[in-house]
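Quick one, tokens below. Sequence please?
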């Protein structure tokens, strides 16, 4: 039986993102033979990343879940440390900070063998300070059930990662691994009605729902009540 599950939410269709997802999938399968690696999502438009993650969690056969965004990666030793932290503690484990891999460096990395050692040119990275809310979420199934799953009212792009992290902090606690996670570049479409347009109706609705999570942060009863209203 696998030791833990790497769950990669992904809706195929964009050639570059499909390439990034496949490179990451092959990397986890090669370097983490003790894990089951599942890739998939719900067929919906726009994509529902929360539903994708809930689907993968239901399919997983282990009790230790690693939600890994399709466009993000990490050093294998750091992921191993995070898994052991989650195994030993009933909390959500997160990486400390984000390292954004720029376009040229991303394309170079995608041309390398995913079975090799992960290496980046420092000039090809933009590192951001502050707490990292997204990318990876490492936790036991017991903690996942205590949080109450991902909120599928978040539709399209944005804010579900912040909401889930706030819920986990409030209902289970969180530990930080002192290492970066890496976000591989992909094009962003900010045109009217496009995925990354922060003026779109779906993003504005996501933002309003996330504000409710922010208001409930640190208040277990309020957070449980908010999550119970999920469909």
């Amino acid at each position: 039986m696998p030791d833990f599950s790497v769950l990669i939410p992904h809706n195929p269709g964009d050639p570059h993102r499909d390439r990034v997802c496949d490179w990451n999938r092959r990397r986890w399968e090669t370097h983490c033979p003790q894990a089951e690696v599942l890739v998939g999502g719900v067929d919906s438009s726009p994509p529902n990343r929360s539903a994708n993650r809930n689907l993968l969690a239901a399919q997983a056969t282990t009790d230790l879940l690693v939600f890994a965004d399709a466009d993000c990666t990490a050093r294998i030793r750091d992921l191993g440390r995070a898994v052991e932290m989650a195994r030993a503690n009933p909390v959500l484990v997160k990486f400390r900070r984000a390292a954004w891999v720029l376009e040229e460096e991303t394309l170079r990395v995608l041309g390398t063998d995913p079975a090799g050692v992960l290496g980046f040119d420092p000039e090809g990275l933009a590192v951001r300070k502050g707490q990292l809310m997204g990318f990876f979420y490492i936790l036991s199934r017991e903690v996942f059930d205590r949080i109450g799953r991902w909120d599928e009212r978040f539709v399209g792009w944005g804010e579900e990662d912040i909401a889930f992290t706030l819920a986990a902090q409030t209902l289970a606690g969180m530990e930080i691994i002192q290492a970066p996670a890496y976000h591989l570049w992909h094009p962003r479409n900010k045109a009217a009605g496009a995925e990354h347009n922060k003026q779109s109706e779906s993003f504005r609705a996501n933002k309003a729902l996330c504000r409710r999570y922010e208001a409930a942060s640190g208040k277990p009863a309020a957070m449980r009540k908010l999550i119970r209203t999920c469909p």
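Residues 15-31 form the longest helix (17 residues). The chain has one domain: 4-228.
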